[in-house]
Specification:
mainly alpha; 18 helices
């Protein structure tokens, strides 16, 4: 039966990638596939071994490699940023359509623009963040938004990827990161690792879309797992994760006793070389991106709050909720397992902000697996359904609200069950530095 579950997981990955490629209700297929795989792993996943979980996870990544990125064009910007850095320039100060970088163009990234053609664009002139049909790179008239550790990752991959391979190098790298994270989780508990490694969301966003959020998920998970034995190194990992995507910095309150200043110092230090090279341009298009995505005025954020509040009010309420959650995490982290605190803190932040792009939820899937809290997978699932409803504020809000109800209901049921049965939660291996042995046959059905 365990073999059959693995076969189904691979089949779902194939089906989800095919549905996304063909446009056959891709977000619905992804949601149904994710729930199906999670349910089968929950029902029949006892006794899974580390090797089996990792092998199936690797097979789940294969379908995505067979297609060019589907869910977004971010990978083309990743390729470009790495290429620009290898040429000795900075993606924080140069825009993709800048004629001074014309020698870096190729038919894959610039199908409608040859190296000899002129655009008349210079990086010194402010431009609008719009797309251009001559290139697959998104927002080619503005500099990059990606932080320094992400840039280092792009550069390393670009060093080993020929131009003719396009995004394939990044797709392979993201697939390997997803598999590595599966192994890291499987060492803790193979059954729960399958929640990440066999998820069709991971199959689509890692090996296909090559989203850098997979790297952030790996660094966050490593930080949580090693924090008991190596708190300084864990803090470095967290700071590095924040320098991949800014969202991981939201977890700093959970690391209150685990060198948060080291994490923040790592994040700041990663910017120093770029700051020396390009000065204040090191922010790239990040401020403009946050403005464009509605984070400055709340106009297209906080979809749940938008059901009741106008933009100005929901921006304030969202900030107050975020502050309250940070304070709660600050105090709860001494009592609860770190993995659990990070899971609900990250998930709650996504429910408050309801970011437009669903792949932001990849770290939450890993944290849900690590914390043994599968209900939080409802948030990434909801994000895909909301993504398909972009522009319909009420529908987006209701979808995210449904995810919040699922999470709250699961937490309530679990607490009542524990209270009525007199059981206590098992110690988290991510909090103690010990390997979880509860997946072994002798421990099945028992609580510690």
């Amino acid at each position: 039966m365990r073999l059959a579950v693995g076969v189904v997981a691979v089949g779902v990955a194939v089906g989800v990638v095919a549905a996304a490629r063909a446009g056959w209700w891709p977000n619905v297929a992804l949601a149904v596939g994710t729930v199906l795989v999670a349910a089968l792993v929950w029902r029949f996943g006892r006794g899974l071994g580390v090797a089996a979980v990792v092998i199936v996870a690797g097979l789940c990544q294969v379908p995505g490699l067979m297609q060019a990125p589907i869910t977004s064009t971010d990978a083309y910007r990743y390729v470009w940023d790495g290429r620009v850095q290898l040429s000795g320039h900075s993606p924080y100060s140069r825009v993709p359509l800048d004629d001074s970088l014309a020698q870096l163009r190729d038919p894959i990234l610039f199908p409608g623009l040859s190296p000899t053609e002129k655009t008349g664009v210079t990086s010194e002139t402010p431009q609008d963040p719009v797309d251009d049909p001559r290139t697959r790179i998104n927002r080619p008239l503005v500099p990059t938004i990606y932080p320094p550790v992400a840039q280092a990752y792009f550069t390393v991959v670009a060093l080993f990827t020929p131009w003719s391979a396009g995004t394939l190098g990044l797709q392979i790298a993201a697939a390997l990161l997803a598999i590595a994270l599966t192994w890291l989780l499987a060492v803790q508990n193979p059954r729960w690792a399958a929640l990440w490694g066999w998820s069709p969301i991971v199959a689509l966003e890692a090996s296909n879309a090559a989203h850098v959020d997979v790297l952030a998920a790996l660094l966050i998970t490593a930080a949580v797992i090693i924090t008991a034995k190596r708190p300084k190194l864990a803090a470095v990992f967290l700071g590095a994760a924040g320098s991949v995507k800014l969202l991981p910095l939201l977890l700093l309150p959970a690391f209150r006793t685990r060198r948060p200043l080291v994490a923040l110092g790592t994040f700041i230090a990663s910017y120093v070389p770029h700051l020396l090279a390009v000065g204040t341009l090191v922010l790239g298009f990040l401020p403009g991106y946050l403005n464009q995505e509605g984070f400055d005025d709340g106009s297209s954020r906080s979809a749940i709050l938008a059901l009741l509040l106008p933009p100005e009010a929901r921006q304030l309420v969202a900030a107050l909720l975020a502050l309250a959650l940070a304070v709660l995490a600050f105090y709860r982290t001494k009592r609860d397992p770190l993995a659990l605190t990070c899971c609900w803190l990250y998930g709650a932040a996504l429910l408050i902000a309801t970011p437009t792009y669903p792949w932001y939820g990849l770290p939450l899937i890993a944290l849900a697996a690590l914390a043994h809290r599968p209900e939080w997978i409802a948030v990434p699932i909801a994000s895909y359904l909301a993504y398909a409803s972009f522009g319909h504020d009420t529908r987006q809000g209701l979808i995210y609200l449904a995810a919040a109800v699922i999470v709250v209901s699961a937490i309530t049921i679990r607490r009542r069950f524990v209270a009525e049965s007199g059981l206590t939660a098992a110690r988290s291996p991510a909090n103690t530095g010990e390997r979880d042995e509860t997946h072994r046959p002798r421990d099945l059905g028992r609580a510690r």
